[in-house]
Amino acid sequence: MRRFALAGAALALIAYAVPGAASDDVLKQTANPAQWALQTGDYANHRFSKLNQITRDNVKNLKVAWTFSTGVLRGHEGSPLVIGDTMYVHTPFPNIVYALDLNDEGRIIWKYEPKQDPSVIPVMCCDTVYRGVAYADNTIYLHQADTTLVALDAKTGKEKWKAVNGDPKKGETNTATVLPVKDKIIVGISGAEFGVRGHVTAYDAKTGKRLWRAYSVGPDNELLVDPEKTMSLGKPIGKDSSAKTWTGDQWKIGGGTTWGWMSYDPDTNLFYYGTANPSTWNPVQRAGPDGKPIDQKWTMSLFARDPDTGMAKWIYQMTPFDEWDYDGINENILADIDVGGQKRKTLVHFDRNGLGYTLDRVTGELLVAAKYDPAVNWTSGVVMDKNSPQYGRPQVVAKYSTFQNGQDVNTKGVCPAALGSKDQQPAAFSPRTNLFYVPTNHVCMDYEPFKVSYTAGQPYVGATLSMFPAPGSHGGMGNFIAWDAGKGKIAWSNPEKFSVWSGALATDGGVVFYGTLEGYLKAVDEKDGKELYRFKTPSGIIGNVMTYTHKGKQYVAVLSGVGGWAGIGLAAGLTNPTDGLGAVGGYAALRDYTALGGTLTVFTLP
Amino acid sequence: MKRTEPLLFVVVALGLLLALQAAAQTADKTAKKEKDGKWETADGTPTYNIGPDGTVDWYTYSGFRRYHSECHVCHGPDGEGSTYAPALVQSMKTMSYPDFLQIVASGRQDVNPAQQNVMPALGDNPNVMCYIDDIYVYLKARSEGGLARGRPPKRADKPAAADKHEKACFGTK
User: If you compute the radius of gyration of chain B from its CA atoms, what whole number of angstroms results?
Assistant: First the structure.
């Protein structure tokens, strides 16, 4: 109750400060636990619901209430939204949006299907996924695969305005949801595998007019940074912080795209997001003029920016000079937790590189950096000594350095694989346990970089890799873990046969939900991970679990429909390049368990 | 009687010709020759070579690498297919070399209410087109040559001709 009251007070303050802003409405809508008003649950990305009708004791009785076929076959990421008595369901390309009437057994109130040039399909690395629409002020915001941003009247599905954010002919596409904040809609871009130069862009929520754009790499004025005031690890970033860390003008095709989740803190008035890999995947081609590693700032970085101006307050680069495709785009969860005996306003981030980071979200100070999968081997850890010239930098193990081993050399046994110890599938935070519930990959790789040349709109990769379950472990390709971000320790870990590619949901009923690639919705106990319930949905789950109430009754819903990155490697099964290490079952092909098809499954208690 | 002899001769000759053709066709399937480390069938189509100890020729190995950089994000590891693109280990069983070149260079679309499959045109991508024969022979080796999944365990050294071709194709010195 106290939390609730505080949130209300904060809401009132902001409402006075910025009348009529989208964030007022988002704060109002997300504060109501009957709804699921933002893909990430709330601005803090907690994915926690105050609903508690479904408990550890009764979850075993969960039954399917109703289902809905989306009519689309490809990978279904993200989740529906529920606002009042209406549910909004999205699909991957062609990016259909359905408004369903919860008062009338899910009858379709309206359907919106944009017309897009299908030539965008193959430009999307790794399937035509889309992580869902956003809602603010009676408007649904759809960000299409071809980067067209559309505002739809939430009641009628009629277009209010459209804006175009990028050019698919150059490899610029979209898979992410948008962040409605203040009077703006903030959007990212995909395409680092095509040499796209990443940026975040703000559009006027009412008109679609472009307001500002902040690049991840390049000259200071285009980065929207202040060399003296923008901080990194407690120091000003200085002049030309990005451009001088690239050879020549390689930054122009340098990647650092922004296809992940965003979070926002009304108190600091900062929004947070991460940037993707530098292009190409061949680090030798990106070496400095002296032939040595060079940072390629600000790829693989966490950004804190002011949504009003776009200016960066702080930046932290997690993986300077990437050699493994460890994009830094995963979600940033804003939680106030104990670190070293002190309550801190933190940002918690589970990076593709296998390290779980806890930072002070006000200043960007690095508090914890620890492996959240024991298999991680490319680094011996991050230097935490503030006086060291290596402060904040991961120490690379030479054996697993694809740069030191060189191009045309196959670097073996690197953990994690390029898809990371975790990809975009978002974790949840429960204020009941102060634990983070994290869907993870438990996959390693061999990686051989080689020379490639750049052509606009064509893939710009430059490495061949093969992936396999982490050797010497349980043989599966995933874990579902609970993480103590104050200590940097795993509280418990459930082995999974396949990567867990579904976003988690934590609830006040003490139950944590997630989906699996075989198609199970699973419910586990928040304190020890004990499985309490499972149900096999029609297809593999790469969507995120959400919950809401309708007429006072709690429902849990998830999109199934296998695909995405997981659909590439896992559909065919992974190979075992090191005979003898194989664990039984680990190489089982996903296609033996599930087939395509988008379906929404909604659960409730009888 | 006189007239039957030439007819008989024609029949015999025709039979002989057919037999020879059949023999030649049988030979086509297996006969291949090597030039500067690159293998081709009698009609000049590039092909793979796998030695008794499993050593693959350079181009098959090179095709393995290029495939897993340029193609596998849709067509899956080892040509096994993904949830949204066909398994080339199957497609290549019936696809001719000219058809392969044409589809890779120009792309193709299969967009209908049930599915949206789009193969991009890769014709102006040197990372693909400079190695198109390599990718072709690798996929042929996978689909019909018994090449196992994963990285080929042993390979021939890179021939000087491959190096020369690479430089000429990319326009580098």
Answer: 21
Q: Are A560 and A515 in contact (CB under 8 A)?
A: yes
Instruction: Return all residues near A53 (Cβ < 8 A) that are at least 6 apart.
Output: A509, A549, A553, A554, A605
Q: Which two tokens stand for residue A509?
A: 């009923």
Our CA dihedral for A479, A480, A486, A491, rounded to 10 degrees, sits at: -90
Domain count, chain A: 1
Strand partners, A153: A139
- Residue with tokens 């933190």, as numbered in its chain: A346
B64 CB near a chain A CB, below 8 Å? yes
Domain holding A522, by residue range, is: 2-604
Residue from A566, A456, A575 nearest A501 by CA: A566
A77: nearest Cα among A419, A425, A376, A316: A425
Average pLDDT, chain A: 92
Asked if residues B69 and B60 have their Cβ atoms less than 8 Å apart, the reply is no
For residue A416, cis peptide bond before it (omega within 30 degrees of 0): yes
Pairing type for strands A63-69 and A599-604 reads antiparallel
Question: What pLDDT score was predicted for residue B117?
Answer: 83
Lowest-confidence pick of A135-144, A240-249, A348-357, B12-21 = B12-21
Run of H or E including A25: helix A22-31
Range from A157-166, A185-194, A446-455 that averages highest in pLDDT: A157-166
- Closest partner residue to A571 among B66, B83, B122, by Cβ? B83
- For residue A577, the chain B residues in CB contact (below 8 A) are 150-151
A34-81 residue pLDDT tens: 999 999 999 999 999 999 999 999 999 999 999 999 999 899 999 999
Residue of A42, A183, A322, A325 marked catalytic: A325
* Closest residue to A569, CB basis, from B77, B84, B125: B77
Query: What does R_g of chain A's alpha carbons equal in angstroms?
Result: 22
Give the C-alpha separation, A283 to B126, whole Å.
19
User: Is any Cβ of chain A less than 8 angstroms from the Cβ of B171?
Assistant: no
pLDDT at A192 over 50: yes
Structure tokens at A571: 């559909």
Q: How far apart are the first and last CA of chain A?
A: 28
Mean pLDDT over each residue of chain B, to the nearest integer: 84
Choose from B74, B80, B84, B135 for mutation: most chain A CBs within 10 A. Answer: B84
| Residue in the structure block whose two tokens are 């790499």 | A217
User: What CATH number has the domain bearing residue A247?
Assistant: 2.140.10.10
Residue type, B102: Q
- Count of pairs with CB atoms under 8 A, one residue in A, one in B: 116
Read off the pTM.
0.91
pLDDT at res. A461: 85
Residue given tokens 């006189």 in the structure block: B2
User: Is there a catalytic annotation at residue A25?
Assistant: no
For residue A411, is pLDDT > 80? yes
Please judge whether B84 and A467 are an interchain contact, meaning their C-beta atoms are less than 8 angstroms apart: no
- B83 vs A155, higher pLDDT: A155
- Of A258-272, A532-546, B13-27, the one with minimum mean pLDDT is B13-27
pLDDT at B165 over 90: yes
Chain B residues within 8 A of A461 when measuring between CB atoms: 69-70, 73, 127
Q: A572: which chain B residues are within 8 Å (Cβ-Cβ)?
A: 76-78, 80-82, 87
